[in-house]
Amino acid sequence: MENFLEVVDLKCKGCYRCVSSCPVKAIKIENNKAKIVEDLCISCGNCYRECPHDAIVVRSDLGQVREYIRLNYNVVASLDPFIFSDLSGMNKGQFVTALKQLGFYKVEDMSMASKAVKEFYKGSVNKNGNPPKKKLLMSTYCNCANQMIKKYHEDIVPYLMPSESPMVIHAKYIKEKYGMDTKVIHIGPCISRKVEALEPQNRDYIDKVLTFSQLLSWVYSSIDNISSLDESELDNAVHTEGCVFLDSPCTGSPIGEMTKVDILGIQECDNFINAVYSGEIENVFANVRTCVGGCAGGPDYKTKRGIVTREQKVREYAKEGRFDGKSKELDSIYSNMQIENPLKKIDVPIKKATEDEIKNALAKMGKVTKELELDCGACGYKTCREKAIAICKGMSEPKNCRIYMHDMLNRLSNSIFDISPNYIVIVGEDFKIIDVNDAMQNIMGEPKEKLIGTYIGNYMDIRDFVEVSYSKQDILGKKVRWENYGKDLMENILYVEEKNALVAIMNDNTKDESQKRMIQEMKLRTIDISQNLIEKQMRVAQEIASLLGESTAETKIILTSLKELAIKEKEYY
Ligand code: SF4
Ligand code: SF4
Ligand code: SF4
User: Fold this and answer.
1) Element housing 266 (H / E)
2) Which numbered ligand comes closest to the C-alpha of 142?
3) CA dist 301 → 25, 292, 311 (Å)
4) Tell me: the pLDDT tens digits for 99-122?
5) pLDDT tens-digit readout, 7-61
6) CA nearest 111: which of 90, 82, 87?
């Protein structure tokens, strides 16, 4: 199976909602991101509908369809009649014109093929004898229901009608009518048909599958003034009964004698299958579809709103059908097509877990007694045991158990709280102690039990606590000194709104602060010594200077005397 759904990692929050919505648990959470295991998936689209972050997207084949048109292929739209139940503001005729403007060669609905399949149902039971030998027959219109049974309930496969789906029959019919090189684009509310189209036997007939929303967004983004478009007719004759497949009983065949029940939605399918296993089902023809409300609630609609209105609208559209019984076209489809296709089980790689393995997995989640199995569903599995089985199959991990993680984090934070070297105290709005860690009780000199409930002001200055309590503004990184404990601290007081409490975390800075003080004192001492030295040197310099001054004066006197003596000597001679 090729990717028909993709998880956008950037958007995925690892919230487990898709896991819990997946009926066959085909989703793993790895590194906090969802991953669809396609071999296990039955293409119900629940995960796509349920993801609250739009992280799961349906693959779009729009690019290839446009390319077929650009390359001048005859591109034929094969419409599920449900599209006419909600055209977002266009009428049917304008919609057909819009598709032609986009480049579709022909636009047909598949009602005639649905009717042909219904006729095949009737005939195939006749072949098996009248009345039918089987106690149960199940429709195979819904590929998702088929996949669920083929992959997970092989004992029920023999009850499936051995038939192609209307989508496949219509595609075969189009290829026969317009040529094998025609490109058939099925357009429906169903994402499971994208998977069906990719099955090897169908690839030659269905070229691409678009959902209604993919097609309508193309129409609205490409064509202006849709409301002023002329109206065109479909290129086929609409068959009333085929628009609402299996709505009416299969009269005229042994199936008509069976009790017809509509099984709509995964949960109903599940209940029904369990009833089949229990042997209580007798003489039933089941019209099985996995969407709540059938195709009117197909995954492309995303929400379940509007199911009734869509159902009403498709019935109104069905009334416009030109045929209600047999027709030439129907005869041609019915007689020339290979409608029969016995469905076979699909092997899925499911590992069976032994009781010991399950026990081990439970133990890894800390569920060592039955009471610890809370079955809270937060991990996406209904019960702890289901989750343990998923762990054994490699589909989940113990750490995905929210309770286990919560307990582990609690234990971790408790031990961090207890062994932290910081002084931590939690006080209530009445400034009474709620909790203290080991370091705090040691410095306060009282056991924790005695401290809890006592007024914090008995032990320390509470002005900062009062300030945070009234201002609701945290104090972070404030230097304080606890004189009575001889401690220098970096104070952080946080206001915890949800608990109406204050958490004080005091980092002990005493060592740093006393070192700083020591360095400061050393600096001061050094400055003193330097000052003394400078002063001393100044004094010496002054003394030297004065001595130098004296001797210079004496020299000057001697030299002056010598000079005078020399002058006198000259005058004398
Ligand atoms: S629902 Fe699934 S895909 Fe969506 S965000 Fe949550 S884990 Fe991710
Ligand atoms: S499409 Fe359905 S079966 Fe497949 S992963 Fe999603 S929820 Fe599960
Ligand atoms: S009920 Fe219809 S839309 Fe839903 S999965 Fe089945 S065929 Fe598709």
Assistant:
1) helix 266-278
2) 3
3) 22, 11, 13
4) 999 999 999 999 999 988 988 888
5) 999 999 999 999 999 999 999 998 889 999 999 999 999 999 999 999 999 999 9
6) 82
Reading the block at residue 80, the tokens are: 């599920």
Residue written as token pair 């094969």: 78
CA distance 560 to 554: 10
54, amino acid identity: D
User: In whole angstroms, what is the distance from residue 85 CA to residue 81 CA?
Assistant: 8
Mutation probe of ligand 2 site: the residue of 36, 152, 396 with most atoms within 8 A of C-beta: 36
Distance from residue 380's CA to the centre of ligand 1 (Å): 11
Ligand 2, atom 8: closest residue by C-alpha? 22
What residues have CB less than 8 Å from 192, skipping those under 6 apart?
Answer: 42, 43, 44, 45, 142, 143, 144, 147, 290, 299
Residues 6+ apart with CB under 8 A from 14: 29, 32, 33, 34
- Ligand 1, from 51, 54, 381, 402: best to mutate by most atoms within 8 Å of Cβ? 51
Ligand 1 atom with minimal separation from the 13 CA: 5
Report the nearest-CA residue for atom 7 of ligand 3. Answer: 142
Half-sphere exposure of 168 (CA within 13 A, CB side): 26
Residues whose beta carbon lies within 6 Å of some atom of ligand 3 = 142, 144, 189-190, 192, 289-291, 294-295, 298
N- to C-terminal Cα separation, the chain: 138
Looking at all shown ligands, the one closest to residue 299's CA atom is 3
